[in-house]
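[09:14] KT: can someone run the structure on this one? pasting the chain below
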Amino acid sequence: METESGMVDEALAILAILSGHPEGKTAIGAASAIPVLVGVIRNGSPRNKENAAAVMVHLCSGEQQQQHLAEAQEQGIVSLLEELAESGTDRGKRKAVQLLERMNRFLKQQSQAEAEAEAMAQAHAQAQAQAQAQAQAQPQILVQAQAHADMQAERSLLPTSSDISDR
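[09:31] RB: done, structure tokens below
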């Protein structure tokens, strides 16, 4: 069992090194490693947690940052990182804090995007309601305009006071 644990330690240390290089980061990200890394942070030894967090720091930067952060959030990483930031190794604590800062920025951006989408949806709904109200009011306005025109026409047919006095 000790040998297996040592191999996991070594494998994670190698992944941490590889994730620091663009090609390595791409390959690790393409391998759908986020759930495995979150699992290691959840259940691994202190050194495993430290190295898994180091890999996550690299994966959660650059082009795929938002995708990886979203996936990590879905896996429940925030509480695990908070725990690691409190009770991990010194390096593990630093990596956990870095990830928590990135996650915090990501969640704020996500919240702002949701608020903007909600505001746009409300504005769209208001515009639709106004257009519908105008469409419903349009026939009423036409009826009123027609009634007014009919009344004007009737008045023009009625004799005026000057017409009556001329007779």
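[09:33] KT: thanks! The chain is about 85% helix and 0% strand.
[09:34] RB: yep, looked fine to me
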